[in-house]
Amino acid sequence: MVVGAVALGGLTSAPSARAEPASTPFNNDTVPALARALAAKPYVPADSSIPAKLAEVDYAVYAKLQFEATKALWRKDGLPFQVQFFPRGYLYRPRVDIFEVIGDRSRPVAYAPDLFNDGGLDATSFPPDLGFSGFRLHAPINDPDFEEFAVFQGASYFRAVAKGQVYGLSARGLAIGAGEPHEEFPQFTTYWLERPSLGAKSLVIHALLNSPSIAGAYRFRIEPGAATVFDIEAVLFPRRDIDDAGIAPMSSMFFLGDINRYRMNARAGTIHDSHGLEMWNGAGERLWRPLENPKALEVDAFADKHMRGFGLVQRDQRADHYHDVQQYERRPSLWIEPQGDWGEGRVELLEIPSTDANADNMAAYWRQNRPLRAGSAQKLRYRMTWGKESPVEPKLARVFDTGRFGDQGGRYEIVFRSASPLDPAALSADVTTTAGRIANTKLTALPVDGTYPGWGAVKLSFELDPGEASLCELRAHLLRSGAVESETWLYRWTR
Questions:
Q1: 10 Å Cβ neighbour count for 118?
Q2: Which of 71, 285, 305, 324 is the most buried if burial means most Cβ atoms within 10 Å?
Q3: Are 225 and 141 in contact (CB under 8 A)?
């Protein structure tokens, strides 16, 4: 959007024609202090007023408002990270303030219309103080050239990829009332980007969270690579008691897979950003819950204490299974590891019926049993890993796929794979249901080839007769000489 003005040679300072932005002191206590003070005041929403032309554009036009890459923050300094910015417009209307931190001082990153191309719109669409809606991070993650690996934009949403991946699921700073009519979407209103050193492997970002119910301070230490790791520290300051806060929330898409193919009359092709919900509970049990595009809204809760980790995982990485150019096999998995004890609570899985393969209809998060109390300060620490699978590899056979055949109970086929040989003759299956009965349980060896990689793969099949029940909670795992040989497969059948 070159509409006059002096072109910026980089964003580490304003152009010579403008005054140098004033700097202010900054340290790790700055954002928590701002959040505490903000929570003590009535909520004031961020400025969302933008010119009508920018509010009315569709995504195709907004996507053309590209940042001029030569003006990326830190590019001219040869640093290992670069930052590009997004203008306000389309759905991204709230103003986001962005600062650069150098040493113990911060100063604003100056917006100017000539940082972007115009996307075919006229110059009057872009006021000189329009401002930013977010930013994206670049680093040489796949080769020596700088590539985008993370985006922060919209409410408190952000997403990332690891080496060799493309974008899929997203994360949020905090969810409040997820999936409910009154759901609240806290917003990251301000960011501080710490200037990295020449040899830095990671980047530190601070963010101020605000919503009608809460204010908060977040610190992200981000290291891209074969797995991209976010180490997160947060301090939350509720304005009211909150008993429906979702911690470390993530959103994804599941449209079509072997588990619901029978119902959607689809013979080929799989469409999903995430394959299932994986959990590692405080008792040390590894759990796998396949995702499904349900007939009606489903909320499943998995009670736990001292939870070790959970995440939405894309295990199916067979390109020929998708029959699509969207590269679903390259979508990242996202794994959450608490740093410290999160106490008692539950992992919640929200599944929303969807007829749109482009819409996120899955959500997962941690909900603690105790509410967030007004006037208190709650600290959270956790590690977020974006990669091919969960970073902790169990010495157990893992669920590779789930097939379901028939609506009224039906037949199920669960494929387990392992890095060690799996001989059905040496294994048994423990399959249970909370209602109805299980019949015709069978274990079958599968060939070791490109379809089922690893030393061993077996298929567990069984039938469910629900009787008069309207809901059956299913569990299944493999045993060897009475010892658990696999993670536990979970599924909820509803009439």
A1: 17
A2: 71
A3: yes
Paired tokens of 32: 């928590």
Q: In whole angstroms, what is the distance from residue 62 CA to residue 53 CA?
A: 11
Between CA 34 and CA 30 the distance in angstroms is: 6
Question: Could you give the CA distance from residue 62 to residue 431 in angstroms, rounded to a whole number?
Answer: 51
Residue 15 structure tokens:
């152009």
70 Cβ contact partners less than 8 Å away, ≥ 6 residues apart: none
Q: CB of 163 within 8 A of CB of 141?
A: yes
Give the 3-state secondary structure of residue 425.
Answer: helix
Lowest mean pLDDT among 218-227, 348-357, 388-397, 468-477: 388-397
| Burial tier of 450 (Cβ tally within 10 Å: 0-12, 13-18, 19+) | exposed
- The distance of Cα 264 from the centroid of its chain, to the nearest Å, equals 27
Token duo for residue 276: 């299932």
Query: How would residue 468 be classed by pLDDT, with cut points 50, 70 and 90?
Result: very high
Are 232 and 220 in contact by the 8 Å Cβ rule? The answer is yes
Query: In sequence order, what are the beta bridge partners of 95?
Result: none
Whole-number Cα distances in Å, 338 to 69, 385, 428: 36, 12, 34
**Per-residue pLDDT tens digits for 61-87:** 999 999 999 999 999 999 999 999 999
Q: Residue 462: what are its φ and ψ, rounded to 5°?
A: -160, 170
**Alpha-carbon distance 32 to 314, whole Å?**
35
Determine the Cα–Cα distance for residues 382 and 188; give it in Å rounded to an integer: 18
Residue 158, pLDDT score: 98
Q: Which residues of 172-204 are buried (b: 16+ CB within 10 A; e: fewer)?
A: bbbbbbbbeeeebbbbbbbbbbbbbeeeeebbb
H-type alpha helices, 347-488: none
- Separation between Cα atoms, residue 417 and residue 398, nearest integer Å: 5
Residue type, 463: E
**Shortest CA distance to 332 belongs to which of 354, 350, 313?**
313
Query: 3-class secondary structure for 202-262?
Result: CEEEEEEEECCCEEEEEEEEEECCCCEEEEEEEEEEECCCECCEEEEEEEECEEECCCCHH
Is residue 15 classed as helix, strand or coil in its secondary structure?
coil
Contact 120, 62 (CB under 8 A): no
Q: Which residues contact 164 (CB under 8 A, 6 or more apart)?
A: 142, 330
- The Cα–Cα gap between 257 and 273 comes to 11
Q: How far apart are CA 159 and CA 167, in angstroms?
A: 7
Residue 284 carries which DSSP code? S
Q: Which run of H or of E encompasses 64?
A: none
pTM (global) more than 0.85: yes
* Plot region of 274 (φ>0 → left; ψ -120 to 50 → alpha; else → beta): beta
